[in-house]
Structures are given as structure tokens and as C-alpha cells.
Amino acid sequence: MSDDDAVLVIVDAANVVGSVPDGWWRDRRGAATRLRDSLVPYAAAGLPGLPGPVELVLVVEGAARGVASVAGVRVDSAPGSGDDLIAELAAGASDRHCVVVTADRGLRQRVEAYGARCVGPRTVRPLPPRGDGGPQRSGSAIRLWERPYEK
User: Fold this and answer.
1) Does the N-terminal or the C-terminal CB of the chain have fewer CB atoms within 10 Å?
2) CA atoms of 106 and 94, how far apart (whole Å)
């Protein structure tokens, strides 16, 4: 499957990183790098309810600019607002399926106007383990759609 056939998954790095209070504010670029690395398996495997492969694009902004791309995850540094670049990427994907990972309501409205579907940060960033030694809380059970994503 070529990248043009794969579903485009755009990840709002600032929103996803900010969804878990793990000290990311002390090193925004490091947090974006860790997120990028954690996304690599999704390129081949896909997301819950969305089989792979998918084309993954991580959009970074501000202090996180300059994070390099790696195999499976393209990193785009927004020259200004990350939301503006995400909306631009979604608009450019009008001829293919596009999923945006963000909890930002305003951004969701913007990209949905271009036909993109939106999912929340826990789709790609499970919650940290519970302090009581219980099992890790995960977003893997989130149902993205009523039925499997089909082209």
C-alpha cells in the first residue's frame, strides 16, 4: 500500500503531550521526541478500529520545533500555529481518509469541515499506570467508529 492509499493520521503534538501531566513542560522538545518514538508502532499496526498501515504525521510547534522525522513518523514543524498547519494538512487530504488526533474542540471543528475524523489523545497515548499497582489504564478500548473504517 502506498502512502497515498494509507489513511493520513495527523497528531497534534502539543495537545497529546499536554494530555498527561508528566512534567512535559520542563522539556517540550524532549516530550515531543518521546511522543514521536511512541507513535512508530502505529504506522504499521494502525489505531484501534483502524487497521494499518497508516501515514503518521506529528505536528510540532514552539519549543518542540526541530524534532526530526523517523521511519514511520513524519514530523512537521509549524512555522506559527500548530493548529493552522494541522488544518492545512487536513484540507490537503480531501481526496483521502484523514484522522486527526486532538482534544482541541476548535481544531476539531476546523478539520471536520474538510472531512477529517477526530479522535482523542488516549487513542495514541494511554494513561500512565495507576498508583495502586493496578493494571495500566489504556485508550485501546476506545471505539473510533460505529463500524470499521472502510475506504
Assistant:
1) C
2) 19
Rounded to whole angstroms, the Cα distance separating 114 from 90 reads 6
Looking up cell 489504556, which residue turns up?
A: 138
Angle between helices 82-92 and 105-112 (to 10 degrees): 20
pLDDT tens-digit series, residues 23-76: 787 899 999 999 999 999 999 999 988 889 999 999 999 999 999 999 999 999
Residue 70 contacts by C-beta under 8 Å, 6 or more apart in sequence?
36, 37, 40
Which residue type is seen at 112? E
SS3 content of the chain, % helix, strand, coil (to 5): 35, 20, 45
